[in-house]
Every structure is written in structure tokens, then in C-alpha cells.
Amino acid sequence: MLYQPHMTERLSPDRAGLARACALLRAGKLVAFGTETVYGLGADATNDHAVASVFVAKGRPHFNPLIAHYPDAEAAFAHVRATDMARQLADAFWPGPLTLVLRRADACPISLLASAGLDTQAVRVPAHADTLALLRAVGQPIAGPSANRSGQVSPTSAAHVLAELSGRIAGVLESGPCEVGVESTVLDISGDHPVLLRAGGITLEAIEAVIGPVAHTAPAAGVLRSPGLLASHYAPTLPVRLTATEMRADEALLAFGPPLPGAGLVFQLSAAQNLAEAAARLFAGLRWLDTQGQTRGLVRIAAMAVPSYGLGRAINDRLHRAAAPRA
Ligand code: TXA
Ligand code: MG
After folding, report:
1. Helix (H) / strand (E) containing 141
2. Are 163 and 305 part of one and the same domain?
């Protein structure tokens, strides 16, 4: 058996809580932790058994590779082949919501299961004091996919984690709401040219200001370059209708700025149309509209348009996936 149902321990991010989280992770158990982006489902990335149980707990297809989290760039670059570009990006954005995909170092101790058979490894240094303290204490890279069941909306609070994974993981470090609210930007710099695999918390504009133009073409059909690019992902139960300009009677509204006339159930992403505020509230809003909408017999979530620059790119990416037909 890879995993057995048990009580999920709720741990405060104080000395005792961090020590307990550290002990559980070292013992190969799963502990969810807060980051500045979303909550991660932590496992010792060097422990095959622990990594395997992440896939079981999430119900995630095995081919989806995991990000390894580190307390600093030096620790990360000991496990991958760092390039000048990697160091430049780390200097500019770590700790922070940027994940770099690089070639694995020859003696990389990370479970091959975590990179799902690819010769690359995704690494990141999160900007969250509790998590950095935990990573330092554990002394091993921590694999951390978003702490949701596969295909569901990413959690931005410990309560969201418990709603989906209670009883399936050993613990959750209750480290408050996530400030950024959308996942990290995933940038593949393992080849000749940098490629944006997932828009996220660090904007494309900010990255290009440091390293110049970045390609963001979709991978060739059939090539599973980044499985996180699966079309239907981050999906609430209610279907989502994009760029709504008018309300239908059976819809809940995800508003960005003044709500559309006639909307009854409304979640406001940002009244002032501030993209950072909207990103931070996006996943909580989708969850809230999903449950409240179903309670009230609504059948769809209408989402107002969000501009596609800066963090708006990540917001629109997640909204498009939430709206994509289910596999
Ligand atoms: O903000 C985040 O990145 C959060 C927090 C917890 O750090 N983590 C997260 O992990 O979103 P996950 O597993 O939900 O998404 C990781 C993304 C996926 O799209 C995956 O396919 C991609 O990164 N990825 C991971 N390793 C990769 C690799 N070696 N090559 C290409 N893509 C990779
Ligand atoms: Mg995820």
C-alpha cells in the first residue's frame, strides 16, 4: 500500500509545527505547505516512495513531472545544470514565483519519478518565510505540486487543502493565505532558447526585461513538453463561459470591475481592476462561485474579460483551462 487513510495534522508555522512538519517529511510522509503562489503538496523529492504517494494522493497521472523546492539558488543549482541565464534569472526573481526547467545534473539525487522520465528537472525557491525555514530544516528538496486533487482548482488557503486532501496526507502547515494566488511561471531554459511553459506569478514582461525575448509557442502536437499544459485543468464543477458581456439568468458572475447588469451571485476579483489583486483572489473566487452557484441552482460561471498583459496573462490562462471541455 502506498498510502493509508489517516488524520491530517494541522500544524501552526511555529517552532513545534515546523519541527513536526520536518519530521513527517523526513519520514517520507506528505505535508502540504503554503507558498506565495498556492499551497504545495510536499514530499521528500529524493524519496521514490514519498514521490509516488504524491501521485496517489492527488490522483495525478504519473507522467506529470513535479517542481523541486529549495531554500536558496545554491542548493537548487547543485542538482541541475545551471547556466548563466539560470543564474541571472535566479538573481532577479528568487525567492519568488518563477520555476526554471533545467537539465538534471549527473549526480542529481531527485527521484526519477519526480521528473517523470524527462532529462530535465523543474526547480524553484519560493518566497515564503515559513516554507524557507521548513526547506532549510529538512535539508532535502521538497517536491511540491499544487495541493489539490488532479484537475481541480489550486488551493490558496489551508482550508482549501483540507477540503480535498483531508485524510489523504499526513499534515498541512497552516501558513496563511497565498499572496500571489496563481502558480509560478514555468520557464524552460534547458534548450537553446527560453520557452514559457506556463504563465504565472512573474510576468513575461519582467522576464524579458532580464533575458530578452522568450518564445511561448505551444509544443508540437503529441509532444508532452509540459503536461501542465493539458487543456482542461483548474476546473470547477460548473462550466465557465469566458469574456461575458451580458448575464444569463442561470449564471453566477466572476467580475473584474463593475459587475454586469443583472448579476445575482457575484464574486469580485478586483473592483479597481488591479491584476495583482485579481490573481490573488482568482482560485478562491472560482471555488466560492462553484459551491454557492450549485447551492442556488445556477448552472454556469460567467467570467468577465481580464486584459492579457502582466499577471492578466496567467489569470486568462487559468480561466481558459477552467473553461476547456473536460477530457
Ligand atoms: O507555484 C507553483 O509552481 C506551485 C507551488 C506549490 O510551488 N506548484 C505547482 O506545481 O503549481 P504543479 O505540479 O501543479 O505544476 C508544475 C508545472 C506543471 O505544469 C508541470 O507539467 C510543469 O510545471 N513541469 C514540472 N517539471 C517539468 C519539467 N521537467 N519539464 C517541463 N515542465 C515541467
Ligand atoms: Mg497544479
Report:
1. none
2. no
pLDDT one-digit tens code per residue, 129-146: 999 999 999 999 999 999
Confidence of residue 63 (pLDDT cuts 50, 70, 90): low
Q: Whose CA is nearest to atom 3 of ligand 1?
A: 184
Report, in angstroms and rounded to the nearest whole number, the Rg of the chain calculated over CA atoms.
19
Q: Do residues 186 and 91 share a domain? A: yes
Q: Model's pTM, two decimal places?
A: 0.89
Least confident of 55-59, 87-91, 243-247: 55-59
Domain that residue 212 falls in: 9-216
For ligand 1, atom 6, name the residue with the nearest CA. Answer: 40
Task: Name residues whose C-beta falls within 8 Å of residue 90's C-beta, 6 or more positions apart in sequence.
Answer: 73, 76, 77, 100, 125
pLDDT, tens digit, 9 for 90 and up, residues 7-39: 999 999 999 999 999 999 999 999 999 999 999
- Residue 116 CA: which ligand 1 atom is closest? 29
225 CA: nearest ligand 1 atom = 31
Residue 165 is part of a domain; what is its CATH number? Answer: 3.90.870.10
**Smallest-distance ligand from the CA of 279:** 1
How many domains does the chain fold into? 2
**Are 196 and 252 in the same domain?**
no
The verdict on residue 273 lying in a domain is yes
> CB neighbours of 27 closer than 8 A, spacing ≥ 6?
none
